[in-house]
Amino acid sequence: MKRSIATVSLSENLEKKLAAIASAGFEGVEIFENDLLLSGYTPAQVGKIARDLHLKIIALQPFRDFEAMPVSHREKNLERAKRKFETMAELGTDTLLVCSNVSELTINSPRQAADDLASLADIASQQGFRVGYEALSWGKHVNEYQASWDIVKLADHPALGVVLDTFHILACKSELNTLRTIPKEKITLVQLADAPWMQMDLIQWSRHYRCFPGQGQLPLNDFFDALMATGYDQYASLEIFNDEMRNASCDLIASDGGRSLLWLDEQRVENRPGAEPLWDDSHLSILPKPCVEDVGFIELAVDPRDNHFLPLLQSVGFKKTFQHKSKDVDVYQLENMSFVVNREPDSFAQASHVTTGNDSCAIGYFCRDPEEMVVRARQYGFIPYQANLHAGELPLPAIKSNRGKLVYFSSEEEFCSLLQRYFIPVHAPSGKTRPGGRLHIDHMADYVPFSEFLSTNLFYRTLLGLTISAMPDISDPMGIVISRTAQNQTGRVTHNIVLSKSVPTAFPGLFGAQRIAGMQHLAIICDDIFAVAGALDAGVVLPIPATYYESIRRHGDVEEGLLNKLEAGNILVDRMRDGVYFHCYTREVDGVFFEFVQRKNYHGFGEANAGTRQQAQLLLQNVG
How sure is the predictor about 363, in pLDDT bands with cuts at 50, 70 and 90? Predict the structure, then answer.
């Protein structure tokens, strides 16, 4: 099959949309009529722009409320259609997409619908055009693809076929056996969209929550199993209606669309024994598998004039272990966790700091094969980053993520070797033995703006091969916070992707005007949280309101002696079946804070206590 996308899926003007679509590697494009009308170009000019970009305009859409109308409307509708065909001739496309009728005037008569569509197809065929009939899931009388196929069969015209839209078919949980029986030459076009499962009105669901494959939950593989059985080998075209994507740049969304189709192909072949690749130019034979194993380091962009964050880093146990030989860059480490603190002027880090303040401008992952990860990233359309060796940057394989941040790939041995080569070891001052047992990064929480939430989920799923799962929505005191978890198989790499729908919000600093996006907090797992909390300076710990512990005491969920220890250490607790989760927080500095956690048979993130933590931060902020 060939890849296409509808212009309605993207924001910005039509010329920019077409350029982004071509740059993302699509072969075809559906022109949404409103985009054409608002473009400022004639259809002929738009057709030339598309051809110059080597894009085939595969359809003009949509043509609405045509079939099975009262007789008095028939001639007027045919005249409307003739004008559409004139536009198509100028555009250079041969396909008109007709949506099933939603008008209150439409008649429940498959015979009349078939006759009207046959007349339309007859006019189309005289000019070498064809018509595709799509069942909208909210159509007045035709709202399932089986019904649209019955009408196409009844019309029996060679220039008339069906349009199969995965949203309308899968959201309604339509059976797919009928699809297997449709001759491939009678499938005019396949439109492709994913979506999260939602209990809501179909129109609202479709118009606001469609998304790319890999961003939703529809059983797309089941659909393609049935489609491939027909032998269909023409265009599959992404048609997405989504508020978030309308707020993002067309370049980002078009690139994500292309990546989503590669991911769909990859996971389909991997999970369906004997399945053939979907796309004619499939790159699966040269696409390495993701092999990210652990978080190697986090690079922080820090204002050289601001000394607020480093004391927080040191207060939780990180010590300066390396200093760059020629740059204002230091490495702080705690066991196998590393922060690279970058204050170097005119660096990538400082450019990032202008946008997001003290934040993670880069992350390094330890991988089984770093070079293979770069090959994978290139295949997915991510831009490789070339280190400036003359400026002393580490020569690690890297790419720019969807959010413009750097992602490094290395082995642990290579990273340690480069530290010895480019940095001067610093002998940390001796101190008391760190309490709490072994420490490791448990999870990282990143805030993303509204326009990048789905894109970030897709980045982790496609490139890094992380599994995405939904977390319960959190009630911020001033709104709702939505989050997803991206995690590798071992759990050693876990990102919580957070979107706040509230402005302002109780998340201090991070979601305010001073910050657009960035790392929210980093959670560190330990063996003994009571020892960790006891060792932290009182001025560092986030004080939890006494009402939290009073509530636990009233419910009698926790033994009194344990509850007293929790309150003394400002430690929160959550239970899940036979599991328990203890966690405590530091105060936030410049929108970033640390969390210490201890788990026992517990797989969540203490979501039940999120409101308490937010309220505690808000109280502290108000006091300040």
Answer: very high
pLDDT of res. 512: 37
**Closest C-alpha to 440, from 372, 362, 522:** 522
Can you give the pTM of this predicted structure?
A: 0.91
* Residue whose C-alpha is closest to residue 32's, from 6, 66, 51, 3: 6
Tokens of 172: 């309604």
Distance CA 326, CA 405 (A): 23
Tokens of 256: 């994500």
Phi-psi domain of 357 (left: phi exceeds 0; alpha: psi -120 through 50; beta: other): left
Q: Can you read off the two tokens belonging to residue 261?
A: 């189709």
Q: Which amino acid is at 549?
A: Y
Give per-residue burial for 90-106: e unless 16+ CB within 10 Å, then b. Answer: bbebbbbbbbbbbeeeb
Q: Which of 25-29, 440-444, 588-592 has the lowest mean pLDDT?
A: 588-592
- With the C-alpha atoms ordered 341, 345, 351, 356, is the resulting torsion angle positive or negative? positive
For residue range 367-411, list pLDDT tens digits in order: 999 999 999 999 999 988 887 776 667 889 999 888 888 999 999
pLDDT of residue 49: 98
41-66 pLDDT, tens digit each: 999 999 999 999 999 999 999 999 99
Residue 373 CA from chain centroid, whole number: 19
- Cis bond upstream, residue 504 (ω within 30): yes
DSSP state of 138: T
Q: What are residue 474's DSSP bridge partners?
A: 481
Euclidean distance between CA atoms 556 and 567, whole angstroms: 15
What pLDDT, on a 0 to 100 scale, did the predictor assign at position 342?
A: 86
Three-class SS of 569-604: CCCEEEEECCEEEEEEEECCECCEEEEEEEEECCCC
On whether the CB atoms of residues 357 and 331 are closer than 8 A, the answer is no
**Torsion over CA: 139, 143, 145, 149 (sign):** negative
Residue 483: which of 443, 524, 541 has the closest Cα?
Answer: 443
What is d(CA 573, CA 583) in angstroms, rounded to the nearest whole number? 6
From the list 391, 385, 408, 388, the residue with the least C-alpha distance to 328 is 391
Spatial contact of 81 and 66, defined as CB atoms under 8 Å apart: yes
User: Phi first, then psi: what are they for 520, rounded to 5°?
Assistant: -85, -60
Q: Which helix (H) or strand (E) holds 230?
A: helix 220-230
d(CA 70, CA 68) in angstroms, rounded, equals: 7
Contact 318, 334 (CB under 8 A): yes
Q: In angstroms, rounded to a whole number, what is the distance separating the alpha carbons of residues 107 and 68?
A: 5
SS (H, E, C) 51-80: HHCCCEEEEEEEECCCCCCCHHHHHHHHHH
Question: Can you spell out the DSSP letters for 283-297?
Answer: -GGG-PPP-EEEEEE
Contact 39, 15 (CB under 8 A): yes
Distance CA 287, CA 375 (A): 7
For 297, residues 6+ apart whose C-beta sits below 8 A from its C-beta are: 331, 338, 339, 340, 363, 364, 408, 415
Q: What is the total residue count of the chain?
A: 624
Q: Token digits for 242?
A: 């989504």
Render 482-549 in DSSP notation, one character per residue.
EEEEEE-TTSSSEEEEEEE--SS-SSTTTTSTT-SSEEEEEEEE-S-HHHHHHHS-TTTBPPPPHHHH
Contact 49, 41 (CB under 8 A): yes
Which positions ≥6 away from 319 have C-beta within 8 Å? 332, 333, 334, 428, 429
